[in-house]
Structures are given as structure tokens and as C-alpha cells.
Design a protein that fits this description.
Layout: E1 12-14, E2 20-22, H1 26-46, H2 56-73, H3 92-105, H4 120-143, H5 150-173
Antiparallel strand pairs: 1-2
Length: about 190
């Protein structure tokens, strides 16, 4: 099998269902950003420390779910042959919320914004969080023009919350304090 197709030589790519779109299409931007996020999660895993290795299995599961999200975003609204993989009954959003609650209980309460960073794992998770937010914006932009799988948007929205609290928990594991933004008024109650 050849890796190259030459379709991209003219600025186009083929999506699931065989539609050919420009690489600048909103659908391509949405699933491309999810793909970028998946790579960042891989980088986070590769850089886990001995103390933060406990996050590895969860992060690998997130990578699997991100592939499902990307697949669903790559399915054209004209495609009647393929069904969405990502569904409410797969309980992915519930699973994220359970983990968010678990890590929230293991971190100190905050009232102010914190600076992204801390230990290496936390800093990398904050990068994942911000790319997740960009993916969400790309998905919403697509959604304004075409139907999408709503479950993907719910998952991505919750995922940024997961990365935020997982970053805070990584700092707890590494015994590193979060740094509050000095000009923040209390925002979390």
C-alpha cells in the first residue's frame, strides 16, 4: 500500500464516503485539530514521569476516543453508508466526568485562575487543554454549516475540563504548587 495518494497535490483530500474536499474545509480543520490533539496526548504519555505514570491508561483511552471523534467528524453529511462510532451509550462523557470528579477531590480548592504550567506533565496537559479548546471551536464552526455528531462536541467540551484537572493532579503528584494569576479576582466558588 502506498502512503501517498497525490490528491493533496491540488489542495484536496478524500473523506469517509468518498467526498473530496479542499484541505481548508471546516470539516478537515475540525478533524485535523482532533488529530493534532491526539498527537499531543501521545507526547504527554511519552513524557510522563515515574510519579505521573498512573495517568497513562486513561490517556491512552482518550487517544482511542479521539480517533473515534475524528472518524465521526470525517463522515460527510451525504454519506449514508457509514454510521457514527461515537454514541451517548458509549458513556465516554460520563467516564470523563467521573475522572474529573476524582481528581477534583484530590486537588486543593481554587478560587482564582492559575497559570498553565507546573511540572512537565502538567504543562503538557495544559497544552492539550488549549488545543482541545481550539478543536471545540473548529467543531462548532463546522456545526454552524453542517450537521455533526453532537456526542463528539460534548466529549471534546468535557475533555478540556479533564485536561485542566489532570494537569492540577499531576502537579499534586509531583508536589508542585499551582501558581495563581496575580490579577485574578475569585472566579471559582
Amino acid at each position: 500500500m502506498k502512503i501517498y495518494t497525490r490528491t493533496g497535490d491540488k489542495g484536496k483530500t478524500r473523506i469517509i464516503g468518498n467526498d473530496v474536499l479542499y484541505k481548508s474545509d471546516k470539516r478537515i480543520n475540525a478533524y485535523g485539530t482532533v488529530d493534532e490533539l491526539n498527537s499531543i496526548v501521545g507526547m504527554v504519555i511519552a513524557n510522563l514521569s515515574t510519579k505521573t505514570k498512573e495517568l497513562k491508561d486513561e490517556l491512552e483511552e482518550i487517544q482511542q476516543l479521539l480517533f473515534d471523534c475524528g472518524t465521526d467528524l470525517a463522515i460527510s453529511q451525504n454519506d449514508t453508508k457509514h454510521e457514527f462510532i461515537f454514541k451517548e451509550d458509549n458513556k465516554a462523557v460520563d467516564w470523563l466526568e467521573k475522572n474529573i470528579d476524582k481528581y477534583t477531590d484530590k486537588t486543593t480548592k481554587i478560587q482564582k485562575f492559575i497559570l498553565p504550567g507546573g511540572c512537565i506533565t502538567a504543562a503538557n496537559l495544559h497544552v492539550a487543554r488549549t488545543v482541545t479548546r481550539r478543536a471545540e471551536r473548529e467543531i462548532v464552526s463546522l456545526m454552524q454549516d453542517e450537521p455533526i455528531n453532537d456526542e463528539v462536541l460534548k466529549f471534546i467540551n468535557r475533555l478540556s475540563d479533564y485536561f485542566f484537572i489532570a494537569a492540577r493532579y499531576a502537579n499534586v503528584l509531583e508536589d508542585v504548587d499551582d501558581i495563581q494569576y496575580r490579577n485574578s479576582k475569585p472566579v471559582f466558588r
